[in-house]
Amino acid sequence: MQQQKHSFVYFFAWLIIGVFFGLGILLFRGDINIDFDQSSGNKSTELSPDKNHRGFSEAVVKAAPAVVSIQTIVWSSSAADKTNIPAGNETIIQRFLGKNSPHRPKRKAITGAGSGVIIKSDGYILTNYHVISHKDELRVRLNDGRIVKAKLIGSDPDTDLAVLKVDVQNLPAFSIADISKLKVGDIVLAIGDPFSIGQTVTQGIISATGRYSAKTRISQNTYENFIQTDAAVNPGNSGGALINTEGEIVGIN
Description:
By secondary structure, the chain is an alpha+beta fold. The chain has 3 domains: 2-47, no CATH class; 66-166, Beta Barrel (Thrombin, subunit H), CATH 2.40.10; 175-252, Trypsin-like serine proteases (Thrombin, subunit H). It contains 4 helices and 13 strands. Strands 3-4-5-8-7-6 form a 6-stranded antiparallel β-barrel. Strands 11-10-9-12-13 form a 5-stranded antiparallel β-sheet, covered by helices on one side. A two-stranded antiparallel ribbon has the order 1-2.
């Protein structure tokens, strides 16, 4: 009987040692926090997520500087251009009205907005063709706040892509992901400038790859091979970046 009692005591002693050893490992890893309530004198153990986990902030920090905002301008025709006044008489009328007259015909700027991604550090930017098509002026707002003029280098309406160039060097440029490794269910982040409110990041997953419909076309493009995602994309996000959790670009929004 006494031998069984000693065995029982040894069992509980080793059990207590094992519990404390396990708690020590958890505390060392940071998987558990022990909160000592000083006001009541009671000790409470609270499980909480690892505070070192910061979501996808590292991917955003890496990618965000290479995403730009694009401002477009279309100059509307002046009132004088819409009349049949001969060119010589138009000059006389404008002189008669005076340079600062409120009745003098003036051009109006119709503005638009979109996003773009820097693909080369010497100023080459990729965006959607529909963002910049038939625009009179193009301006790019860089991540550091600078606004610079851009010129159209080339475009491909069939894929809805266009390349712009700004005269700025040493810009942060994107690393391009190997999209052959992209799988349905992968987490992705969309970065752009929706509604011109400033750079915004939304999260989603890859819902489908190689999306194409022969019966009902998804867009007006001739070529369709889309990545489908449920990440929120709003007006102004067009031309922005779709990135993976490593901060590499996988597509254009």
